[in-house]
Amino acid sequence: MHLPRALPPRTLLSLSLPALFTTMASPPSSSSSSPPSTYPSFRYHPRHPSFPYTARDFQRQDESPDTDFYAAPRFVTHIDDHAIAALSAYYAQALPSHGRILDFCSSWVSHFPKALEARAVQSARGERSGDEKEEALEVVGMGINAKELAANPVLAQRILRDLNTQPDIPPEVGALDAATCVVSIDYLVHPREVLASLRARVKKGGTVHLVVSNRCFPTKAVGRWLRVGEQEKLLMVGDYLHWSGWREVEVVTVCDGKGEGGGWFGMGRPDPLWVVRGRNVDG
Fold first, then answer.
1. Does residue 113 surpass a pLDDT of 60?
2. What Rg, from alpha-carbon coordinates, does the chain have?
3. How far apart are CA 129 and CA 177, in angstroms?
4. By three-state DSSP, how is residue 104 classified?
5. What letter does residue 264 receive in the DSSP assignment?
6. DSSP 97
């Protein structure tokens, strides 16, 4: 489930995270010229004896069909350029350089770093590397707007699917090494079902990376997302992963929102960005 690719308004329910990093180095400044070798993170720990959310938590202001709401393609982005650059740098360290990746809730851009993008585009075009021993990188895109998916050059396979009416990852995605979802987990009304089915498609040891920002389109975000602050949003996504069977769940700060050069026309503070990630292992 992707959203119109325009910078959405910042949510007003904001909560800082300093208490979570008291034993860690300061998060990398958004104004840093190079990505950090490691990112500040904290390990998620289960907080509830069972999945804590009810149907009311996933009600939305606009319950009209998402296929109608997202029918028109929108070829814009909805995090700022600073956050996009930070996400690409994170992906360069966190995603596999070969294999098969699912970008679900995808659109016309996946924000991969240049090296991964080049390899994915090569696979999407059916081209082979000059090095016969070099393994390919294939990216599967799953989204709700055919024109946006068609415009994404890294995708070797495109699957149209409304995960709010069909909350499972179909077998045609193949065996996956990793999966990504960029600032869209807050729009899924059945996140546990989607993430559990994703885990069934990801190889043992594979990873999922759920990217979270402090922006959203409130009419399509689930209700609880609008009622809690940033810290609770991140822990809520951690709950989604844990109760769908993912392990080694942690929250990573990719961009701390400090410095300058972000926002509209580079005239404001950059968007903060986090990744809540998990691994498909027994435990």
1. yes
2. 18
3. 20
4. strand
5. G
6. S
Q: Which residue shows structure tokens 């999966």?
A: 179
Specify the pLDDT at position 3.
40
Q: How far apart are CA 102 and CA 257, in angstroms?
A: 27
The arithmetic mean of pLDDT across residues 167-180, rounded, is 98
Question: Which residues are CB-contacts of 93 (< 8 A; sequence separation ≥ 6)?
Answer: 35, 37
Q: How far apart are CA 70 and CA 4, in angstroms?
A: 7
Classify burial at 172, counting beta carbons within 10 Å of its beta carbon; exposed 0-12, middle 13-18, buried 19 or more: exposed
Greater confidence, 215 or 202? Answer: 202
Average pLDDT of the chain?
Answer: 86
Q: Please return the burial class of 114, using the count of CB atoms within 10 Å of its CB with bins 0-12, 13-18 and 19+.
A: exposed
pTM: 0.87
pLDDT in tens, 210-234: 999 998 889 999 999 999 999 999 9
CA distance linking residue 180 with residue 88, whole number of Å:
12
Find the angle CA(16)-CA(245)-CA(99) to the nearest 5 degrees: 90
